């Protein structure tokens, strides 16, 4: 497998790169970004994954996320995958919340989605293997994961399904219970079919109810987020964590909305929180 | 004069706003952004102006500039105007470096540009007067100015022409001598005509040679900037400052290019540098 360098830019003492490769899992070219902080030759750095929300590509957080200064201070590599397969051959939907830009980090089982929409396997397996091969300084024995909205859902569910792989899991305004909100019900029924039992591996609250565990979670949500009540439902995550004994730090941030102005405000906090756990 | 609020978002404890108004100077609607940090009621905060480069609007730095954390720490308001008049009635040019997005902070004298392309008067006079009226917390007795590339040229020339108005002047990769580079010669001849004497108020080095003075300047330039040799020519600014006794701090940043990855890396430095001078 080869990897193509789309761009590299020096930033905050490190290198912000954008890369493209032919994904065997999605059957498409896939683009992702990696920030590698300045580091001593031969040093190996922990990795923080960031999964993006609806309509986004790798570019949104790369341009607007304000993570590089904090990653440089913490010595943490930051990786941002795309949110779906792309290309003319990939089936799509007119809606912003299904199809391209809205892969929901699932392996689809329903046609016409099943062939390309395999973002779970892409993010969990193929991309980490590629990183291991291509980025010698990335220490995959020390990984954390975070994300925003649909990507917060992705971070929570991937973290809960793989507690041995991720030392730290956080989220910004995650879709906390896809089984119980319009975005989730639409996406999971579309990609996985009507049997709601098949959806449970893709719902943080259901995973916790089914016995999956992480030690702790950090979640920030803006109390002026327009999606708070109908789509995000952090109170369901709080309840699930309380019942399961998971140490959830849920911060309702006053006046903040769902935008990158919210994310960038608390990004340095999250990077430092992950950094402490990844370097402990 | 009325001002329309396009958007406001809570960010880094303050408010990032985007506003539109009908400019009497340009004869068009003009859009600009303002970040107001959290502050005590009745407090008045110094103002840092940021002028953007070719092809940009207010949005580029607002999304990618990474200034809000530093402005919140320093208690400095950050204002980003557009780079030219906009609209269907405004004459344009197919090139990226002339016409819309390329106002060069001049008052044009040549047709068809003279009617709308009056960015000098807009940035020097009309917009500050609007800010004074509409933003009660803005203390215009304490102003600093900075900018990038064409906007660095704008910051240097506006600062040099108005030393009593601006306590602090800095720039990122400025066009240091428009009389002696292709971007400058094209823009100034197009907007001002062929008499190069008329260009001198719009050239930092010529202004210094003609006796304009500021106490000090801070300038960062990437040594991997592809425009360094042909367009930016910081060595001409260094020579002009040396001859005039202006305390120029010119930092050639190794490996950095002309992008917002460069700007955002050193933005916090510039905001803190201005903050110290604006609050002294």
From TrEMBL, chains A, B:
Positions of the catalytic residues: 149 (charge relay system), 225 (charge relay system), 258 (charge relay system)
Principal EC category: hydrolase
Assigned EC number: 3.1.2.12
Source species, domain of life: Bacteria
Catalytic reaction(s) noted: S-formylglutathione + H2O = formate + glutathione + H(+)
Keyword annotations from UniProtKB, A to Z: Hydrolase, Serine esterase
Keyword Hydrolase: yes
Keyword Amino-acid biosynthesis in annotation: no
Gene Ontology BP terms: formaldehyde catabolic process
Name of a matching Pfam family: Esterase
A GO CC term attached to the entry: cytosol
One GO molecular-function entry: S-formylglutathione hydrolase activity
Family designation: Belongs to the esterase D family.
Described purpose of this protein according to its UniProt entry: Serine hydrolase involved in the detoxification of formaldehyde.
Name of this chain's protein: S-formylglutathione hydrolase
Species name: Sphingomonas suaedae
Protein's gene: fghA
């Amino acid at each position: 497998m080869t990897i193509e360098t789309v761009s590299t830019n020096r930033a905050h003492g490190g290198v912000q790169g954008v890369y493209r490769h032919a994904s065997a899992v999605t059957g498409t070219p896939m683009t992702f970004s990696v920030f590698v902080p300045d580091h001593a030759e031969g040093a190996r750095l922990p990795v923080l994954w960031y999964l993006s929300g609806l309509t986004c590509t790798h570019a949104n957080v790369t341009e607007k996320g304000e993570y590089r200064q904090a990653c440089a201070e913490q010595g943490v590599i930051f990786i941002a995958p795309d949110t779906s397969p792309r290309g003319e051959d990939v089936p799509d939907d007119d809606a912003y919340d299904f199809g391209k830009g809205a892969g929901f980090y699932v392996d689809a089982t329903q046609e016409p989605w099943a062939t390309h929409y395999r973002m779970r396997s892409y993010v969990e397996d193929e991309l980490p293997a590629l990183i291991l091969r291509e980025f010698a300084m990335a220490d995959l024995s020390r990984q954390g994961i975070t994300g925003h909205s649909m990507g917060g859902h992705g971070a929570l569910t991937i973290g809960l399904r793989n507690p041995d792989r991720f030392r730290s899991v956080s989220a910004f305004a995650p879709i906390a219970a896809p089984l119980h909100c319009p975005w989730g019900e639409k996406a999971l029924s579309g990609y996985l079919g009507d049997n709601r039992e098949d959806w449970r591996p893709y719902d943080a609250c259901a995973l916790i109810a089914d016995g999956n565990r992480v030690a702790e979670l950090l979640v920030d949500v803006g109390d002026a987020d327009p999606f708070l009540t109908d789509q995000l439902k952090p109170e369901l995550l709080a309840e699930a964590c309380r019942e399961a004994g998971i140490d959830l730090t849920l911060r309702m941030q006053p006046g903040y909305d769902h935008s990158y102005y919210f994310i960038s405000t608390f990004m340095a906090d999250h990077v430092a929180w992950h950094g402490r756990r990844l370097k402990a």
